[in-house]
Every structure is written in structure tokens, then in C-alpha cells.
Specification:
This protein is α+β, with helices and mostly antiparallel strands and 334 residues long. It has helices at 6-15, 26-29, 47-59, 109-118, 134-140, 201-218, 234-240, 243-249, 278-296, 316-322, 324-333, and strands at residues 20-25, 37-42, 65-67, 73-75, 84-86, 94-97, 100-104, 121-122, 153-159, 165-169, 188-195, 197-198, 256-257, 260-262, 270-272, 305-307, 313-315. It is built from eleven helices and 17 strands. Helix 9 (278-296) crosses helix 10 (316-322) and helix 9 crosses helix 11. The structure holds flavin-adenine dinucleotide.
């Protein structure tokens, strides 16, 4: 992958004023605190900027990666040689009109949940502890308490790979458990229209407090992590239980490779104890995946994604298989 020229960077600075950062240390900005150096991050402040950036990339056939707060991503140890488009606080506006909520994709999810509570709207409580952006949440159809954000979506605005602005109704977003059309269509979500129900502010606040207290009890909070590593599979859940319980029963809790550890607090979390490398995490994912498959026959799917140095984004379990040799070497080193 050819690196960007000075002329390229000058053009990008015109298309995305104030939002171009070079030489970004992924280990300092990513949620897992893992990853090498990224050449350039672009943080647009409007849909128009996203459209112009995507047109610029398209004209040059230049691959690029789209991220929110990186709370579901593992970056490669080698870093990232393609531009990274990050939608965050510069596109974080939220407007509430009665039960309708219009929010930009960079809105911080826990902040959005608080705004809903203050407006007396119920239905978004389950998202109050999810540390991502609305764009990332919609892409992942994330949620908790057996819910997903998709059920509150009316429409999603996005920009496709040639820079065309699109609007999709919820029906056309193909929401399913932790899935949406945005995982495969290479569109950048720029904003969404959500709808919630009227509720009692005090009851909503108390539900949110209970959800946050339960999460504090169950999930590791001190070390960097990316939330649950494996998705819950309904058939596996019914037969032998949720991923965390199954992984724990197989004795994986506390297993360590390099700086990465299967959390002793919750076996479906891999935490960075300090200086963890992506290869360490992939080695643990491969070990769990293989262990659960041999013991139970179930092939667990990972929730998060691996971002390779050339910008390919693939599910973590697939990355653990594809980078299996390095992962096995990391297990042997440990
Ligand atoms: C401590 C912790 C707890 C968590 N708990 C939960 C939980 O309870 N439930 C849950 O569902 N998840 C949970 N997660 C995972 C994660 O927070 C969610 O998946 C979140 O919605 C991801 O948002 P993000 O902005 O960080 O997206 P990122 O991690 O940056 O990206 C995730 C995916 O979304 C895509 N994406 C991001 N923004 C856009 C956009 N604007 N347009 C198009 N695609 C985009 C990326 O390309 C990537 O494929 C947790 C994570 C952590 C660290």
C-alpha cells in the first residue's frame, strides 16, 4: 500500500478541516490499548465532509477503514497503512422532538441514553453502559438485556462507497441478533432517526442505575478490553449455557498469553494486563474457540473485528484462525 503524499494530505485537510491527524498511536487511542501506528485518522464534522472524503477515496480507489470509538475492534500490531475515518464527537449532535430522536453517528451511546432519560423516553436504558458511538452500535445492532438498538431505529442515513447519500428504513437495515446490513455494505452511517416510548423519568433512571450496577459487578472494569468476545448462540445457550459459563467450565479463566488474559472476573472477556499484543489476544481467542469446539461441538462466533495493517476488517474468530501460526507461536512463548 502506497503511503499518502504531501499533496494528498493537503487535499484531505481541505476536505476535512481540523480533522486530520497523522501518526496515530493505536495503542493509546483504541479501547483495548493495542495496535501499532496508524498513518492517518480523519475525523469529519459533517455528512458533507463524509461525502467528499468518500468521493476522494473512490476516485483514487483508495481503501480505508471506518471506526467509531473502537470498542469492538482489535488493531494489528503492525498498525494501519490505510486512512481511518473516525466518526466521533465532531458528529455527535442529538435532537429530541417528542418521541423522535435524531442523532448523528458520532454521538456517545451512554450520553445519548442519559439524554433519553432526561427527556422521559424509555426503551434505550439497555444501552446506558455500552461505551461506543451510535454508528458503531447500529452497525453491530448492539444492546444488552437481550435487546438490540435496531428495534428503536426508524431510519438510518449513510454514505456509500462512491459518496452517495442514502436513507434506509429500519426494514432495509436487516437487523438481526448483533447483525445489520452495515456489516457488509461498506456504507458509513452518518445519522439515525430513532423512536422511543414515553415513560417515567424516575423509573427510567432507576432501571439505568440497576443495569450499570449489575454490569459493574459482572464485568471487568479496570483493565482495557472490548466487551464480550464471543456472541451468545441460542442453541448453545439452551443446551450448555452462555459463552462465559462454558469457557469458565472448561478452565480457561485466568489463561494468559503475553500481556493478554482471559479475565478471572468474566471468562468471555479478554483483558489487556499491560503491553498486550494483537497476536496475544488472537492466540487466546484461538485457544478458546478450539477448546469449546472440541469439548462441545459448538463453533462460537466472535462479536468484534480485527483490523489488519492493510485495512481488511474480519471477525476476530476468523482472524484467530487465519493468523493461527503466529497465535500458536504466541501460546508456546507464554
Ligand atoms: C467494556 C465494554 C462493554 C461492552 N458492552 C457491550 C454490550 O453490552 N453490548 C454490546 O452490544 N456491545 C458491547 N460492547 C461492544 C461495543 O461497545 C459495541 O459493539 C459498540 O456498539 C461499538 O461501537 P464503536 O463506536 O466503538 O464501534 P467500533 O468498535 O469503532 O466499530 C465496530 C464496527 O462498527 C463499524 N462502524 C463504526 N462506526 C460506524 C459508522 N459510523 N458507520 C458504519 N460502520 C461503523 C466499524 O467499521 C466496525 O465494523 C462493549 C465494549 C466494551 C469495551
Amino acid at each position: 500500500m502506497e503511503s499518502l503524499t504531501k499533496q494528498d494530505l493537503a487535499e484531505l485537510r481541505e476536505l476535512c478541516p481540523g480533522g486530520v491527524v497523522t501518526e496515530v498511536n493505536l495503542a493509546s487511542i483504541s479501547q483495548w490499548k493495542i495496535g501499532g501506528k496508524a498513518d492517518v485518522f480523519l475525523r469529519p464534522s459533517s455528512t458533507e465532509e463524509v461525502i467528499n472524503l468518500r468521493r476522494w477515496f473512490h476516485e483514487r480507489e483508495m481503501p480505508h477503514v471506518v471506526v467509531g470509538l473502537t470498542s469492538n475492534l482489535l488493531f494489528a500490531d503492525e498498525g494501519l497503512r490505510v486512512p481511518c475515518l473516525q466518526l466521533g464527537p465532531r458528529m455527535g449532535d442529538v435532537a429530541i422532538k417528542h418521541t423522535n430522536v435524531y442523532a448523528q453517528a458520532g454521538a456517545w451511546v451512554p450520553g445519548l441514553a442519559c439524554k433519553l432519560m432526561q427527556a422521559g423516553l424509555t426503551g434505550g436504558e439497555h444501552t446506558c453502559g455500552i461505551p461506543g458511538t451510535l454508528g458503531g452500535l447500529i452497525c453491530m445492532n448492539g444492546g444488552s438485556q437481550r435487546k438490540g438498538i435496531g428495534s428503536s431505529v426508524v431510519a438510518v442515513e449513510s454514505v456509500d462507497q462512491v459518496g452517495t447519500h442514502r436513507v434506509r428504513s429500519a426494514k432495509n437495515c436487516d437487523f438481526a441478533y448483533r447483525q445489520s446490513v452495515f456489516q457488509n455494505n461498506n456504507e458509513v452511517i452518518t445519522s439515525a432517526h430513532l423512536r422511543f416510548a414515553l415513560g417515567e423519568r424516575a423509573a427510567i433512571r432507576s432501571d439505568m442505575r440497576a443495569i450499570l450496577a449489575e454490569r459493574r459487578k459482572k464485568f471487568p472494569r479496570k483493565e482495557p478490553n472490548c466487551g464480550s468476545v464471543f456472541k451468545s448462540d441460542p442453541a448453545m445457550y439452551a443446551e450448555i449455557g452462555p459463552p462465559g459459563n462454558v469457557i469458565e467450565r472448561l478452565g480457561f479463566k485466568g489463561m494468559r498469553v503475553g500481556g493478554a488474559e482471559i479475565s478471572p472476573e468474566h471468562a468471555n472477556f479478554i483483558v489487556n494486563k499491560g503491553g498486550a499484543r494483537a497476536q496475544d489476544v488472537l492466540a487466546l481467542i484461538a485457544a478458546i474457540h478450539n477448546g469449546v469446539r472440541s469439548a462441545t461441538g459448538y463453533l462460537m462466533q466472535a462479536e468484534g473485528y480485527y483490523v489488519s495493517v492493510s485495512g481488511t476488517v474480519i471477525p476476530l474468530d476468523r482472524a484467530a484462525r487465519e493468523y493461527g501460526d503466529a497465535a500458536r507461536a504466541a501460546i508456546q512463548r507464554a
